[in-house]
Structures are given as C-alpha cells and as structure tokens.
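User: Can you predict the 3D structure for this chain?
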Amino acid sequence: MMFASHVAARHNALWSIDGTYRFWWHIWPASIALLICGWIYVEKPGSPMASTSAQWGKPAPSADVLAGSRVAGNAGRPATRLIAVFPEKLRGDAQTCYSNPPDKARPIEACARMIGSGMLSDEQLVAAYNQRGRHYYSLAQRDLATADYDAALKIQPDTPAVLANRSLIFMEHGKNDAALSDLNKAVELSGPALAARTRLYRATALAALKDYDKAIADVDESQRLDPADSEGYMARAVIESRRQRYDAALQAYDEFGKRSPAHIVTALIGRALTLEAAGRPAEALLAYENVLKAAPANTQAITARDRLRRNGNR
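Assistant: Here is the predicted structure, written as structure tokens:
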C-alpha cells in the first residue's frame, strides 16, 4: 500500500512539473490528435466534392483534405487542392485558415470570416468549424474548440473526424462515457484511412474506464490496420502498465523507442516508471541513467535517479 501511495505521489509531482510526462501518460494520442484533426471533412459517396473513386472516410484525390498532416506529407503547408475547393473569394482566407503559424490569431480570424460568409456548402462549413476548433485546441481553449466541434456536428452529425476531435476534450475533462459514445460512432463511420487512429482514441477512453481487454483489442486492430504507426506501441505500453502487466508494457515501450527514435527519451522514461511500479528499483535506476545519456539535462530523470540512489540503489 505504501508503495502504491509512493507511486501515486511521484506521478502527481511529475504531472505538475513535466509537460512531456503529462503529454504521454494522460493523453498519449495527443500527438495523433493533430493529425486526425487535420482531416478537414470526410466525404460520403456522392458528395459534390467527392471523387467517384474515393472511399467513405478517405480523402478524395480531387481535394486533399489532409492539410498539414504527415499522411499527406505537407509538413504544415496548406494543400493547394484543398484551398481550390472553396469559393474563389474565400481562397485567401482559406489559405490563412489552414496555415499553422505560432500565432493563431490570424488563422482563427480567417476561419471566422469563412464561417460568417454565407458562401460555404455544408461540407465546407464543417471544414471551417473543424479547422478553427483545431486552432482553439492548440491554444488550450477547450470551451471554444468544443463549441466549434458541436457546431460542425449539428450540421453533419456523422463526421467521424470531428467526433474523434471532440472526444479528446471529453477525455481531458474525465467525461470518458461521453468520449466513448463519440468514438463508437467515429469507429463505425471511419474508413480505412482514419479507422486505425480512431481506434487508438477509443482505446484511451476504454482504458480510462478500466475496460482493458477491449482497449487492447482496439490497439490490436489499429496496429493491424496501420502496422507502421508507432503510436500503437505507446498506447499498448500505457494500457499494459495500468493493468500491471509490466513485462508486456516494457516490451511495448522498447518497440515504441525503436520505431520512433525522435521520442526515445519518452520511451526510456516510460520504461523506468514501469520498472519502478513493478518493484524493480535497481533496473529503474539503470533506465533513468540511460535517459540521461540521451538527455543529460532531463530534470525528471535526474530527480528520480537521485531519489533511487538515496534509497540505497546502485
């Protein structure tokens, strides 16, 4: 019991001081959130802007709706074909709305002008609300983001990308049942290109509700659909840690680190935390020392290493 209390206290302390720890432990799919949010709209077959060859849930070749996502490979640049689907008078605003500068004021204003123009089709209006919601979300203005997602869903209730976006905010506020309701719809409606990540969102909500078997089943299916996405291993690691299957969690953290070298420090920290939770302090100490080899100034690892040493671990 004392060990559990110690782990909880350490978790709370790290949560307060370490943004990376918060990012990965609480909402590990937040990194893919900005990718899923990049789906501007998801076209149903027969939509005026849909290609006849486009699958439901998959962006049509005639309108690249993955502006700025890694799937489109645009590295944050608005897609020319996306901008072209908007009315000519609004294309300047569309260009700005779908840009991603550090200062979000101009993109938000541009999105607002598009929304208020009276010139957008339903699909385009949903797109603009969703994009403005993205900007508000990135500024941590959750109420405004929620209002935009709600507005989009009033127009088109069956838009899986918007449902998935809104679910993140529900989860952040502990409204996991509401998040699960949105995600059940999103999973059902998503085509192959979106389904893998939508299932990772749902795994998050299921894990928060302690339905770990279903959460892992969603991770399994997500990884089957998109084996190249390293986020599935992070999801698996967090869920297995929470249900105290520590060896499985360690294996998943190791795989995540191999597949996502840019986040190796996060993988090593997750490994160290898991080893501590498993009651293996000597191995945890070694894991924290490995963190410091990769990131010598990491305060989280320094604090944990020094604490373990004070407790007699070498």
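The radius of gyration is 21 Å. Confidence is low (pLDDT under 50) at residues 1-78.
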